[in-house]
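$ ./design --mode recover --in tokens.txt
reading tokens...
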């Protein structure tokens, strides 16, 4: 109670990130378990963009998970792929004094400071999917992008007999998933005779991937595989090959990441993609851990989600856990 009184008096105390976390725990413990007090807790969710089907699904997963808890209200914001907009959104949530923030950052560096400001204000922050710099946040939830990229590389090495020309259509390379999926892929093909003959930053967007693949097709008569950092990129590459009119969409192996049931997995079932690797949205896990935090419970600092590989042989049975 003495700490609360000091805070109320407006005395400014300089604290590190771990102390900010302690401040959050103290506030939540004082307020009590929302399920018992009847208080409605407000969560601010800042999505970097809703132009990708996977991100639309993430918001839906968060919304569905929150519906099961009448003591939770989630305010959704779409940054429309602009880091400056997302910075403002986080700061707006802080001004609104929401009880917790979930953020899926567009880029690591620009969103690091706003997240730190939220923590300094005593508002816990769950960083979802893409990381920020440092460790001044409450919890990070995401899959192991290096592992997924590595598994994609190993899969293509085996599929192509250890040699061939590959096109890599990257995600936004100022984001951690793009960097990590590239790093893992290069580890996966290391020691083989697979060669990346063309690569481009497609910013996760299918039209960009389609345009870049057209350029690759015009330059290279032999392309054995495409590694897309997400399924829209792999699908865009397939469309470009089909539109070329030379039948190369039938010989090139297209591999993507995300494995949404209505997108990547369906493409595999339809014979468009050779494989897709699951990247869970983490929406349900975000709400589960938000509830624990709001109740004053401790959560793991970093929560790693699993992945599965879907091919035509196993897509109907739920893929293969890796």
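writing sequence...
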């Amino acid at each position: 109670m003495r700490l609360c009184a000091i805070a109320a008096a407006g005395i400014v105390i300089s604290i590190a990130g771990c102390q900010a976390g302690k401040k959050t725990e103290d506030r939540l413990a004082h307020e009590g378990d929302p399920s018992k007090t009847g208080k409605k807790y407000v969560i601010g969710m800042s999505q970097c963009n809703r132009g990708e089907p996977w991100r639309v699904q993430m918001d839906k997963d968060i919304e569905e998970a929150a519906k099961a808890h009448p003591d939770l209200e989630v305010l959704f914001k779409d940054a429309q792929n602009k880091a400056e907009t997302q910075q403002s959104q986080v700061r707006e949530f802080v001004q609104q004094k929401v009880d917790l923030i979930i953020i899926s950052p567009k880029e690591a560096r620009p969103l690091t400071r706003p997240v730190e400001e939220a923590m300094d204000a005593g508002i816990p922050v769950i960083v979802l999917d893409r990381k920020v710099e440092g460790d001044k946040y409450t919890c990070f939830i995401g899959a192991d992008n290096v592992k997924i990229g590595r598994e994609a590389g190993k899969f293509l090495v085996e599929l192509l007999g250890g040699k061939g020309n590959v096109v890599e259509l990257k995600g936004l390379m100022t984001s951690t998933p793009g960097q990590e999926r590239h790093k893992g892929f290069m580890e996966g093909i290391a020691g083989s005779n697979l060669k990346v003959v063309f690569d481009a930053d497609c910013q996760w967007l299918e039209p960009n991937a389609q345009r870049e693949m057209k350029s690759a097709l015009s330059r290279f008569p032999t392309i054995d595989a495409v590694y897309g950092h997400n399924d829209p990129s792999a699908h865009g590459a397939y469309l470009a090959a089909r539109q070329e009119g030379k039948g190369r969409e039938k010989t090139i192996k297209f591999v993507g990441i995300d494995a949404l049931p209505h997108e990547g997995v369906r493409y595999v079932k339809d014979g468009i993609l050779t494989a897709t690797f699951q990247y869970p949205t983490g929406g349900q896990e975000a709400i589960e851990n938000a509830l624990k935090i709001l109740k004053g419970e401790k959560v793991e600092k970093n929560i790693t989600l699993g992945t599965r590989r879907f091919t035509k042989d196993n897509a109907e049975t739920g893929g293969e856990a890796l």
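exit 0
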